[in-house]
Amino acid sequence: KQEVTQIPAALSVPEGENLVLNCSFTDSAIYNLQWFRQDPGKGLTSLLLIQSSQREQTSGRLNASLDKSSGRSTLYIAASQPGDSATYLCAVRPGADGLTFGKGTHLIIQP
Amino acid sequence: DAGVIQSPRHEVTEMGQEVTLRCKPISGHNSLFWYRQTMMRGLELLIYFNNNVPIDDSGMPEDRFSAKMPNASFSTLKIQPSEPRDSAVYFCASSLVGKQYGYTFGSGTRLTVV
Q: Is A98 within 8 Å of B91 when comparing Cβ atoms?
């Protein structure tokens, strides 16, 4: 059974810092990996989708990498801002089934 | 596109009552997923449909839960009878069938059973 782990569970950093969120998964047989952002009391907003054949994807200040063979992905946030404060969720698609999610990293950017 | 639309946004009901959650997927998407989110267990897949057909309902916790997708633009998740431990946020997501596609989530329904 696929398991997804996110480290750290919580992170608090001053504004302006670059930071890395980590995601690991136990079964490397995935189709793709998706990073989401969830604000308190809100739904999930897709940030980046990486196909299994890709190594990374970029959107603005966000960069996500994927190393399928080692079962790891990282989300890099450059020049963090208070508006980046949210919970970040990593999810893998093992096949035709639905996504398997990690528990998330709760991120606080201090002004 | 308006995205995935869920209703109601909030639902408070008494134990034993029937609860129906609704979802309208993105037009053209042919896969639909129901998830439940709790603090303890995170996001769990309950059931998913491809082309309106239920494919895997192994995540449905009990027989009290049922889901239908009568057409490509509408799905329901029903809990009957509801119990306090069903309190959670229920999300609907849709996607195109195919391994290269990502998922789009609705805003969720926060269910409280008292």
A: no
| Cβ–Cβ gap B102/A46 under 8 Å | yes
Task: Measure CB to CB from residue B45 to each of A44, A51, A98 and give the nearest one.
Answer: A98
Full pLDDT tens readout for chain A, 111 residues: 899 999 999 999 999 999 999 999 999 999 999 999 999 988 999 999 999 999 999 999 999 999 999 999 999 999 999 999 999 999 999 876 788 999 999 999 999
Residue with token string 């069938």: B97
Q: Which amino acid is at B18?
A: E
DSSP character at residue A99: -
Give the max Cα distance, chain A. Answer: 42
Comparing CA positions, the residue from A6, A1, A8, A10 lying closest to residue A108 is A10
* 8 A C-beta contact, residue A77 and residue A65: no
From the list B33, B105, B51, B31, the residue with the least C-alpha distance to A47 is B105
